[in-house]
Amino acid sequence: MGLATYAARRAVTSVILFFVSVSIAFFIFRLLGNPVAIMVGPGLPPGAAQVLTAEFGLNKPLWLQFVLFWRNFFHGNLGDSFVYTGTPVLQVIFPTRFINTVVLMGSGMLLSYLVSIPLGLLAGRRYGSMLDRGFSGLSVVLISLPAFWLALIILLVLGFYLGWIPLGGTVTLNRTFSSWWSYAANYMHHLIGPMISIAVFFFGSNFLITRASSANVLRENFIRTFEAAGVGEGTIVFRHGLRNAILPELSFMAVQMSFLVAGAIFTESVFSWDGMGSLIYLAVQNSDYPVLQATFIFIAIVVIASNYIADILYGLIDPRVRYD
Amino acid sequence: MLRSPPAVAGFIGTLSFTVLAIFGPLIVGQQQILNTYTPFSPPSLAHPFGTDYAGHDILSLLIYGTQRSVLIGFLAGLFTMVIGILVGLVAGYLGGVLEEFLMRVTDLFIIMPSIVLAIILVSLLGPSDYNIILAISLTSWMSVARIIRSDTLTLKSRTFVEAAKISGARTFYVLRRHILPNEVHMITSNTLLAVAGAVVIEAGLNFLGIGNVSQVSWGIVLYQAELNGAVVTGAWWDIVFPGLFITLFVLSVSLLGRGLERLLDPRGGVGGVRAR
Amino acid sequence: MSEGDVLLEVRDLCVVYESLDARIRAVDHVDLTLRRGETLALVGESGCGKSTLGNAIIGILPANAEVSGEILFEGVNIVSLPRKRMRRIRWEKIAMVFQNAQNSLDPTLRVGDQLVEVILAHRSIPRVEAQRRVKELFSLVGLPPDYYRSYPHELSGGSRQRVIIAMALLLNPQLLIADEPTTGLDVSVQLQILNLLKDIKQRFQMSMIFITHDIAVANYVSDRMAVMYAGQIVEAAPSQALLAKPLHPYTIALTESLLTLDRRVKKQPIAGFPPDLSKTITGCRFAERCRFAVDECRREEPPMVDVDGRVSKCFFAEQISNKVVGYDYRGD
Q: What are the TM regions of this chain, as residue ranges (chain A) (predicted)?
């Protein structure tokens, strides 16, 4: 079976996973709470409440509600936010909050990889050296830190004491920007703190995974071949070590995504970063269930998609993978 | 274990936190955490960890709150293990359609963002400690199930288990007599890791203000600190010390867990990569 | 034999592996001479130090190995060479063919690209030129050119070994060390690989050190053999002569196991085990397993003795040569 067939088959499983997770979101909210209170909410005018009740069939049998839920889902209707009255939840998420989260997570993870992977490769190569023991010890401490505490400390040090970064937000509020450039600069300035938090939060696990796989790979016979052949240390560690060490990192993707979501919620909440993580925080504070449900569904879709991509990438990097 | 300094440190730390958890409320007392002094005063002899926004002594709050944090973490870790071991044992030992089904469910739970699920569960079910324990256990059992299943699969094919099965031993007997004793090392260390993880999640949920905020726990102290502007007033002690409690607890328990895993492994210990 | 004929000379080489609880003397005071154009086979049981000796010559011993003595390559002692200069000697002058093991090539890269990488590590030439060189060598070792784009796991064991041989030839080395190059291959493939090695050795006018546990294979490829036992060379002689008339009891035992192979009888391993190299050994190292051993053998280490221009590390070398002691010695 070729890569294309494999990709197609994995796509089918991913779609099934998607249907099941969205259905779970439906049932959690219908079965664990009072559906009318949950979907219609307290702050709405009586008229709007009636419209929503009819739209989601909240007085109808559960199976019919389930059908209606899916129909609405495919029309892009996941209800209206209680807090941003009358705003469809999809518009609360898209596009600003979604983009903000992607920018933060993307840059934070990138920064983390840029530091942790080279160090992990070197530590694996010099297993048991001072460098290895030092960073391994640091990583064990780092993975024990709660994400929100780390974010608070970074905010306190870089923001309050050193004054290098703003104390929160995505851009400075109530300020008009003369050009897109000054807007971007302001945005980047706000990004520094949460980005560093994410990077530090993920350093420990990334380092330890890379180090372990690097130590294993660099013990393989082919490394000795290339050493004997006079190939430089840099090529050995970064070309052969990296390619082979990245594979376990990819297969760790599903678990990593779960951490990433947690990191997003806590870091964004601490830094008031206008993303999906802080949206969850706000939604919880205000019992904004439609937003909570939609965010859950949305994150599930992103996680399923990333796992799918990671699986395909794995096949592209490792030619040994048999698709059966 | 005695030859491994990290494991010894973990043991001492875990022991200290256990003592604090049992006797904390006796040492500090209800009245002492209600007393108020000057708000946001920095660490001093009278208040080694300073005071919070309302003037509570932070050291007293943390000692008093240890019981609640550790107890929630311990119970949540325990239930996580119970679910994980049950799923893993049944899937690994019985196999067949049941295994297929259970592992699909495990995959599904791994895919779903567990922290969001936990947040939703607590906010729908209500902010009680029981619901927090329930939410944590329901969203963290997956890795345990996977580990136990793969180990059970290996053990199942070993001679002594085969022999017991052929000689007509009942399933329950084989599990209790032959499988579980060989997994004690993994179960012990994973329980400790599960407790450590549960304490972090519990602190996180409380930090977000989802839990019962009228009581004292490590996460609640941080929640109150953030809510009442400890960062913008520069009251670092209100943030640093509660976090240190959480971090030290997690570090001690997980170091002990790793140490015990090596000590108890009947197959001579994994010990990571051996030197050549 | 003039001085210019000598390519490699090993003098009094010792390699000790240090670990937390032991010092293992893997190579113990070894002397060895290799002439230009000559194939020398190092023969011995596994663990006798032959691979360590090979690895020491090309300089890829693990960090816990302690080396003393001299390895003179074209008159230069390469034991004490700085890392950087040694890197230039490796593969440009001395190349190695490793045992056909799993993962002897990077599983995630195309084999052609891995060979190109080796060339580019030594020569600053355009990539296409390196690729051309690789394809040239592929045809030389009998691989179709489209194997260039294959991944290691797609090749058979024999083809993979041909790739490894092509890799060794990339930079026209003067010395090729082949460490058990046919282990793990089918018997018919083994012969092909041996013939290929003999062929390219002629064609490239190289010298070769061939490491094997199989004295028949050694005889097939080599001009001269050195038999190793427990970290020492116990006998060295031209291959034909050595096989026809072994002068050391250990060699006799090795040739006997060869005879049983010819009769299609199950190969008889030599009784007993080699000594523990982490302990100090007094006397002859083979004494415990030797049928000729007398008390003296266990007390004193025998010297290397010259017999008819050959060497043997046995008190009885001369007697064995004159058939005073022999196969039926016991029966007397």
A: 12-32, 98-123, 135-167, 187-209, 250-271, 291-317
Model confidence at B274: pLDDT above 60: no
Helix, strand, or coil here: A248? helix
CA distance C204 to C172: 7
From B103's Cα to the closest Cα of chain A, the distance in A is 13
For residue B41, which phi and psi values (nearest 5 degrees)? -90, 140
Indicate the helix (H) or strand (E) that contains C134: helix C127-140
| C-beta of residue C234 within 8 angstroms of C-beta of residue C310 | no
Considering only CB atoms, A300 lies closest to which of B111, B125, B243, namely B111
User: Residue A268, Cβ neighbours under 10 Å: how many?
Assistant: 28
Yes or no, beta carbons of C153 and A226 under 8 Å apart: no
* Residues C75 and C186 grouped into a single domain: yes
pLDDT digits (tens, 9 = 90+) for C128-157: 999 999 999 999 999 998 899 999 888 888
Asked, for residue C288, whether it belongs to a domain, the answer is: yes
Query: Order of strands, edge to edge, in the sheet holding C76-77?
Result: C23-35, C6-18, C65-73, C76-77
Same domain, C12 and C81: yes
The DSSP code for C37 is T
Look up the pTM and report it. Answer: 0.82
Which of C92, C107, C122 is the closest to A320 by Cβ? C107
A132 close to A126: Cβ distance less than 8 angstroms:
yes
* d(C-alpha B252, C-alpha B11), whole Å: 7
Question: What is the per-residue pLDDT across C67-87, written as a single tens digit (0 to 9) for each?
Answer: 999 999 988 898 888 888 888
* Residue pointed to by tokens 């569904």: A297
Whether B209 is covered by a domain: the verdict is yes
DSSP-assigned beta bridge partners for residue C40: C209, C224
Chain B hits for C64, CB-CB cut-off 8 Å, are 276
- Strand C65-73 and strand C6-18: pairing? antiparallel
Q: Do C62 and B275 touch (CB under 8 A)?
A: no
Nearest to B13, CA basis, from B136, B196, B189: B196
Domain span including residue B162: 5-33+68-264
User: Quick one: C168 and C220 in the same domain?
Assistant: no
What's the pLDDT at A42? 64
Task: Give the C-alpha separation, C23 to B229, whole Å.
Answer: 63
Amino acid at A125: R
